[in-house]
Structure formats: structure tokens, C-alpha cells
Amino acid sequence: MSNALPPNPVRSRGLVILVVMVVVTLSALIGSSVLLLGENASVSATHDRRSAQSRLAAWSGVQAVMARLHEQRDDLLDGGAPVLPESWTFPVESDIAPAFRVVGAEGRLAATSENAKLDVNLATAEMLEALPMIDADLARAIVGARPFESVAELGSVPGVTPALLYGDRGGELEPDMLPLSEVLTVFAFDPNIQLGAGEQGEEHRGNQRVNLGLGWSDALERAVIDRWDESVAEILKSLFEQGESLKRTSDVVALYRRFGASPEDWIEGLDALTTIDSEHVRGLVDLNRASPEVLGAVPGIDENKARDIADARERLGLDQRRSIVWPVIEGILTQDEFQEACDWLTTRSMQWRVRVEGGSLIAGEGGDELSESAEMRDRVVVECVIDVSSRRPRVAYLRDVTGLELALALGASPDEETDPIDEPEEPVPGEVFEPAGVDRPAPPEPAQDESETESEPVGGGRIGRWAVDQGSSS
């Protein structure tokens, strides 16, 4: 006789119900997970799309700034400063409009001159040590670690902290002491062309300077006759036949002084003559924009003379400051001091560092007018160096700095590159001008075809499809 109990119908129904509930719950959880994953994927795709749009807006801003600087190249050659609008907006039939604007870093100028800084790859250890934020040990360490492709690479040099490089956030710098990023550069090259000084100089404006550095030749004789006349050519020929050697600007100044010429007479010659066989001269400091700290590091200019130069240029007109001779004419530098300093000086800036903010402007938060207070959605900030030293403008440097301020605030050491935006190759036009005391091989010269057709920027109130807000200057 079997002892098995008959199945309990109530228990069986309860088990079935429990299993069904578990299955339904699991199905609901799986369905919710699938929906959540789909929603997350959608959010991620939307974020990626907005981020890409912001980056494209920022890159468009870089191109627009480059076009504006190209338009103003003649003024920049004369020593002028760039004039940039506050913002551009993209007019579309939408509640969200792509936009970009030029922004200053921590309230500084929107465009800052790279030529107002010392070239960290060419400055001597003594020049670096003359900067108030660099001691002798750090100067030697910097010289030993070069060449650098950007100033950000100085962060790898022992002793260079983020505060020293980008700005004080922990009391490491003395009050009013500039960070290294504001006094050093690797992008300072001056076009070796004439401005047109002198009575007959205007017809030679934009021509390459006459090169005396290669010695006398038939080609040099023709160039001198074309620029002046046969009598000047005969004088120079006689000097070269007597063994004269002119290898630096200071040699030309010494020659003028030997003949008793006044500083006013030097202006035309220093504009028309060169001793560098290159289309560009690297390492020159813009006398009219460099800070007293930078000027004080130039050989022949001490701290007091640097301040006097900075004070005097504020009251002088642009025409008076077109030649590097003006500190002598104004009685600030002696002729001996100027002869020592002139190998490092220029009076114009042809490379400008700019920060561009790209993103989306939401309707009702500024409309088509993008003010300084309007906040962008999906904001991206890029920093670039625009080079207009040649007839064709180019982006010399490009870096995403969206998170730089936050990284510095948190005390982190930011990387050199942060998600770069289609970064171009860095141009190194011409040969390197090596001032006294510098022994470094010249970097390779890039291809640069000046004969190519230039792409002229669109004038007026638009650049391409971008509407321009004619707001501020730098």
C-alpha cells in the first residue's frame, strides 16, 4: 500500500502563481533595463553630438579669428594690434544656435602677443635667469631640457610647478609676478621684410631685406643699387674688399657708429638690411609690447631701462615706435646698450595667442546677441596661436583647454594635450637666428609655397555663414 499523499491542489496553484510572478517581475526588470540602456545610449549619443557640435563651433571660431588677423596683416606689420569682435553667432531657425566667441584668460586681453615673450629655445641661460621667477638652477635645467615644442612642455622640467607655469593658486609666486606661460614662448618669428622706412622706402615696402651676411656678390650689388644707388653699392663693396664682416644686426649698428651716423640715420638701414639668410628671424622680442620683466632679460637692457621703455611707449605714437631705434632717440638707451640689445628686438607681433569658446546659445538667454554674461551649453574652450608672419595665415598651435582651469584649481598637473581638435603641424618658418651664446642646430624648415593662391577672408559683417558682432578690440 502506497504511503504517498495525493497532490495538494491549493499548494500547486500557489507555486504556479509564484513562478508566474517571478517570471513577470524578471521580464519587467529586463524590459526596464533594456529601456534604460536604450535611454542611456540615446543620452550618450545626444551628448556626443552636442560635444561634436561645440568642437566644430570652436574650430570655426579659430578659422574666423585667423581670417580676421589675415585681413589686418598690414596693420600688424606696422606694429598695430589686432581688432577682434566679441562674438560670432550662427543664425538658424532653431531654439538652440551654435555660437563661439573670443575669450580672455582670467580677464586678460582676448589676443596676446607671442612676440612679447622670450623664445625659450633660444634665450641664453643668463637671459632666463634675469627673469624674476627663474633662478640660476632652473635656468640651467630649462636650457638642458630644450628644445620644447610648446611652453606647456616646461611642466616636465623639475622645479616647474603648475602655479609657476600657469599662474599662482597657492602663494608660490610673489605678488604681481607673471607665470612662465606669459613670459616664454616657442612661437616668435619675425618676417624678414622691409616696412618702407626712409624717403624712398615706401616703394620697397614688403620686399625682402637686403642680406649683407653672405659677403659681397653680384646679386648683392644689384640689390643695393635697386634699394639705394650705385654710390652706396661702391661704399659697401669697398668695405667688404677690406675684410668687413657683417653677421649680426649689431655689426650693422657698429658700422653706422664708426661712420658717425646719428641714430635717426640708422632707421632706414636697419629696416632695409639684414644679416640673416632666411625669410623669418626667430627669437625677436616686440619692444612695444613686451612686459618690463621680459625687456629686462634682453642683453643691454636692465630692470630700470625696461620700466622706462614701458612707460615711454605709452605716450609715443605708432609712427614714432615703428623702428627699434626709438629708445635711443628718446634717450632711454645709450648707443652701446642698444648695440648689445638690437639682435633681439623687433617692433611688431605676427603671432597671437587666442582662446575661443564654442557651444550652443539657447533662445531666450541672449538671443542672437551673445554678451559676456551669456552662458553657453556644452561649452568647449580651445587655445590657439595664429601666425600671420607669411602671406598665408596658419594655425601654429591648437589645444583643448576646457578643463585646464579646473585642473589647476584642484592642484593637478594638466597634461600637454587634452583631446586635441584636429591639431595641425606646428610651423617653423625659415632658419633659426642664433644669438650669441646659443649653440643649437636649426630645426627643419617646412614647405612653404608663397606662390599658392591665398584664400581671402570674407569682409564686412560676416565670415562665411557666421554673423559678426562688431564689439570689442583686443
Can you describe this structure?
This protein has 14 helices and 16 strands. By secondary structure, the protein is α+β, with helices and mostly antiparallel strands. Among the domains are: 49-112 and 349-449 and 457-469, no CATH class; 193-277, no CATH class. Strands 1, 2, 3, 12, 13, 14, 15 and 16 form an eight-stranded antiparallel beta sheet that branches. Helix 6 packs antiparallel against helix 7 and helix 8 packs antiparallel against helix 13 (335-341). The protein is elongated, with a radius of gyration of 31 Å. The N and C termini lie far apart (106 Å). Residues 415-474 have low confidence and may be disordered.
Concise structural overview:
Helices cover 34% and strands 14% of the residues. The protein is α+β, with helices and mostly antiparallel strands and 474 residues long.
